Amino acid sequence: MNAIVALCHFCELHGPRTLFCTEVLHAPLPQGAGSGDSPGQVEQAEEEEGGIQMSSRVRAHSPAEGASTESSSPGPKKSDMCEGCRSLAVGHPGYISHDKETSIKYVSHQHPNHPQLFSIVRQACVRSLSCEVCPGREGPIFFGDEQHGFVFSHTFFIKDSLARGFQRWYSIIAIMMDRIYLINSWPFLLGKIRGIISELQGKALKVFEAEQFGCPQRAQRMNTAFTPFLHQRNGNAARSLTSLTSDDNLWACLHTSFAWLLKACGSRLTEKLLEGAPTEDTLVQMEKLADLEEESESWDNSEAEEEDKAAAEPEGAEGRELPSCPAEPSFLPACGSWQPPKLSVFKSLRHMRQVLGASSFRMLAWHVLMGNQVIWKSRDVNLVHSAFEVLRTMLPVGCVRTIPYSNQYEEAYRCNFLGLSPPVPIPAHVLASEFTVVVEVHTATRSNLHPAGCEDDPSLSKYEFVVTSGSPVAADRVGPTILNKIEAALTNQNLSVDVVDQCLICLKEEWMNKVKVLFKFTKVDSRPKEDTQKLLSVLGASEEDNVKLLKFWMTGLSKTYKSHLMSTVRSPITSELRN
């Protein structure tokens, strides 16, 4: 994560100051940051935790070198710093952690070495401890702008027996240029930074209680109430955080915590490349989910109203007969009691084509793509459901209307996939219709106990499939273009099942884009038939089967897309542009 985490302190003598900061370096370390190339550097400690290797290196500076470093540093001068404003000792280059997984270095020191970063951190420090404060002066707050970065700041107090009010004011800030990323990381940063703060406050509280027990400061200050405050402390106006917490390894621990915070916060959120707007299938699924939620809320409200009415009925109404509820259609109980199968019978379209045979599968697929009603008659409910799950992958989600299993025939306008029990009669006009295809599943005879394609599948070897239609597809019929491409992919044995699935998704998206163009051209713009024929020729869909397919798939467009187009056409700006 490209951010800087810093610990800031409000010094009673010098105002807001940066005590300690950790930054991320993707490039080679800058000079003076402890790169370890100089022979004068001695490695003090090295440990590895969570894939991050931490090391602390100290360089022996000569007085001249120290003077030059101080003059070139963007931080405050030594004369402007007291014990409470300083974290690392003079000459300490800081702490470095090497992330082996990403080759990223986490560097900690008192101030950033880069002048621009120093200015950004300095400004964020001043604002976090002066004007940008939440109510109560303790807690998280967010501020910033595009020029100086965005800041997550959490202010807190540390107990100090020698400070005014027996406490000192600190803040931990996280600075980033990406506002959205920082806001999305708010819950994570809040929880982890609060953990760091609680640990610091706990250590300081123990020291404070020990000091108060040994030498209570409150009574001593009451006796010297008229003595100037700064003079009565005998030079103890500033105390370092290591002194307040009695922890000599405080800065190394803070470096570990800040480095882990930057690494964990950067890895918990990942960016995904979206190639465009949500697909029609996604929009339709979202609309169906919203409709289900509204329906459940309406049912809850109606049940509550009925309970209120029943409670308000007079006593004389006990002997009355309540009106009976209308009988539900017979397929609803069947759907309610139906359970999804544990194992799919048909594994893929290629598997179904092998079981049914090439000619029967082509006839079935043609009716599916055209939007005709597909009826499966079988006693095996799992088989029917598996067949519908495989066949529906050829259609957009909005074009699928399924009744998995019913005890009576349902009209085509209610569903285009219908599962029936073998004894259920189908009307004669439906069987003779060219808009219906029936797949009957019979028990295989001994002579045909292992149909083609079922030798390795015992669940299908006991069945034989008969596909009939009032208008069988001729073998020499060209058919829709997408059907020919699907068959070409299924027959290509070099393509795996996963590749065929991705190919099918691409084909559906290609033809749904053509449907969108045709819908806007005909339904929204109301162009004449001559222009529509030219458009179909340009789209490569001028054949009769392709036109029927486009018209059927047009019913699968989402309400969101249709309303968006209609609102765009009706807007005054669009009409002015057309005129």
Provide an overview of this structure.
With 579 residues, this protein is α+β, with helices and mostly antiparallel strands. It has 21 helices and 14 strands. The strands form two sheets. Strands 3-4-5-6-2-1-9-8-7 form a nine-stranded antiparallel β-sheet. α16 runs antiparallel to α17 (497-524) and α17 (497-524) crosses α19. The radius of gyration is 38 Å and the shape is elongated. The model is unreliable at 32-51, 56-72, 229-236, 315-341 and 572-579 (pLDDT under 50). It is found in: Cell projection, Cilium; Cytoplasm, Cytoskeleton, Microtubule organizing center, Centrosome; Cytoplasm, Cytoskeleton, Spindle; Cytoplasm, Cytosol. Belongs to the folliculin family. Residues 294-308 have a biased composition (Acidic residues). Pfam families: Folliculin (PF11704), Folliculin_C (PF16692).
Percent helix: 40-55%
- What is the percentage of strand-forming residues? 15-25%
Average of per-residue pLDDT values: 78
Q: In total, how many beta strands? A: 14
The DSSP helix count reads: 21
Strand order of the largest sheet: 3-4-5-6-2-1-9-8-7
Distance between the termini: 51 Å
Shape: elongated
For the report, how would you describe the main beta sheet?
9 strands, antiparallel
**Regions with little confidence, pLDDT below 50 for 5+ residues:** 32-51, 56-72, 229-236, 315-341, 572-579
- Taking all Cα atoms into account, the compactness measure Rg is 38 Å
> Structural class from helices and strands?
alpha+beta
Family: Belongs to the folliculin family.
Main location: other
Biased composition (Acidic residues): 294-308
Biased composition (Basic and acidic residues): 309-321
